């Protein structure tokens, strides 16, 4: 490394050390930085297991692995600063049911949101609120927090009805540096008891139970960007299912493990960085 390169590297480290973090003394905490017509690309891997029992029938267990990519396409912001966001997933799922292979399924899905710079993700035309990541992590605090301190938030997009929504507690666990950027690590846990009423393929479900989200995620406070997450979500529900005017008992336990990793940025000019 040349003397000039050593000097530039030292300057970058100094800049990174002074970059804002969730724990900085600045009057405002870091926020996401979005750009119109920019696409953020992530690798997405998930493992799932679902155990279901209907009436007196034997229990059914389905397990699956899904590997692919998810693309965050940003459009123009509205008056309150929330950006139009389209999320595209492109992944292939391999599954087994009661130990027997199920034909691989390739799924391409798109969904649309208004994305706020504090991490809140709004379903258009509603007040239903989630968070940035696939799995609802990524909500930032409303003011700077100290290392080890907590902040609270509420999710309402899980289809889970409870008086308080799905309350979450996040903790700033560490601050580090990566490629000259300041990176914060956060632990988030969400837990609630409530009800789910849904209709799927002509069947009506009336269920109650618990949902728990527990995960760690990293946020690049220099670039204003969500980097990684490791998330576990479990749901335990019981109640009734009604099909063709027949009502039966229903019980379900779902577990999902999700890993999301930032890969790069596709700019409006077509370059990938």
Total domain units: 1
**What string, H for helix and E for strand, traces the elements in order?**
HEEEEEEEEEEEE
| Strand ordering within the main sheet | 6-5-4-3-2-1-12-11-10-9-8-7
Helix content: under 10%
Low-confidence stretches: 1-19
Radius of gyration from the alpha-carbon trace, in angstroms: 21 Å
Instruction: Report the biggest beta sheet as strand number plus sense, adding barrel if it closes.
Output: 12 strands, antiparallel
The total count of helices amounts to 1
Q: How would you classify the helix and strand content by structural class?
A: mainly beta
Query: What is the name of the CATH class?
Result: Mainly Beta
In CATH, the topology is named Lipovitellin-phosvitin complex, beta-sheet shell regions
First-to-last CA distance = 24 Å
Give the overall average pLDDT: 87
Shape: globular
Query: How much strand content do the residues show?
Result: over 45%
Oligomer: single chain
Main attributes of the structure:
273 residues, Lipovitellin-phosvitin complex, beta-sheet shell regions, single chain, mainly beta, 1 helix, 12-stranded antiparallel sheet, 12 strands
């Amino acid at each position: 490394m040349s003397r000039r390169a050593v000097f530039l590297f030292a300057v970058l480290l100094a800049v990174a050390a002074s970059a804002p973090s969730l724990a900085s003394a600045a009057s405002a905490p870091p926020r996401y930085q979005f750009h119109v017509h920019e696409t953020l690309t992530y690798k997405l891997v998930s493992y799932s297991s679902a155990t279901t029992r209907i009436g007196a029938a034997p229990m059914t267990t389905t397990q699956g692995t899904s590997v692919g990519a998810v693309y965050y396409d940003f459009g123009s912001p509205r008056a309150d600063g929330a950006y139009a966001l389209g999320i595209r997933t492109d992944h292939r799922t391999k599954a087994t049911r009661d130990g027997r292979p199920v034909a691989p399924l390739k799924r391409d899905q798109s969904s649309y949101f208004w994305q706020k710079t504090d991490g809140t993700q709004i379903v258009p035309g509603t007040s239903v609120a989630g968070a940035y990541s696939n799995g609802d992590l990524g909500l930032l605090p409303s003011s700077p927090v100290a290392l080890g301190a907590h902040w609270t938030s509420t999710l309402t997009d899980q289809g889970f009805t409870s008086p308080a929504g799905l309350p979450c507690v996040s903790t700033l666990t560490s601050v580090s540096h990566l490629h000259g950027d300041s990176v914060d690590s956060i632990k988030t846990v969400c837990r609630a008891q409530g009800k789910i009423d849904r209709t799927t393929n002509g069947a009506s479900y009336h269920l109650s139970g618990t949902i728990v989200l527990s995960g760690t995620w990293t946020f690049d406070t220099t670039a204003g960007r969500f980097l990684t997450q490791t998330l576990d979500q479990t749901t335990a529900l019981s109640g009734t299912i009604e099909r063709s005017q027949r009502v039966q008992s229903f019980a379900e336990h779902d577990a999902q493990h999700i890993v999301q990793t930032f890969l790069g940025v596709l700019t409006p000019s077509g370059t990938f960085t």
